[in-house]
Design brief:
Elements (H helix, E strand, L loop, with lengths): L2 H21 L32 H4 L29
C-alpha cells in the first residue's frame, strides 16, 4: 500500500469517526443534587482561628510576594536570592 493511499484511508476513517460522533446521542445519567445544609455537623471551628497558605515557592526558598522597600536592608544584585540571605 502506498503512502498516499494510507493517508487517504486514515483520513477517511477519521472523517467517518467524526461524523459518527456528531450524530451520536449523548448518554443521559440521572442528576444528583447535594444539599450541604442537610449534612450532619462534623465539628466547629473557633472564630479566632487563623490560617496561613504556604506556597511551594516559599518551601523551595523563593519569594511569593514582592517585599516592601526598606532603607535598613542591604540589597543584592541577584534577584533569585531571598532578602536577608547570602547569595552563596
Amino acid at each position: 500500500m502506498g503512502e498516499r493511499m494510507k493517508l487517504g484511508l486514515m483520513g477517511g476513517v477519521l472523517a467517518a469517526f467524526g461524523v459518527a460522533i456528531c450524530f451520536a446521542k449523548p448518554q443521559t445519567s440521572p442528576s444528583i443534587s447535594i444539599d450541604p445544609a442537610k449534612f450532619p455537623r462534623a465539628g466547629t471551628v473557633d472564630e479566632r482561628f487563623q490560617s496561613y497558605n504556604i506556597e511551594m515557592v516559599e518551601v523551595t526558598g523563593g519569594r511569593f510576594w514582592k517585599p516592601y522597600a526598606s532603607n535598613s536592608e542591604t540589597t543584592t544584585t541577584d534577584k533569585n536570592v531571598p532578602a536577608g540571605q547570602a547569595a552563596d
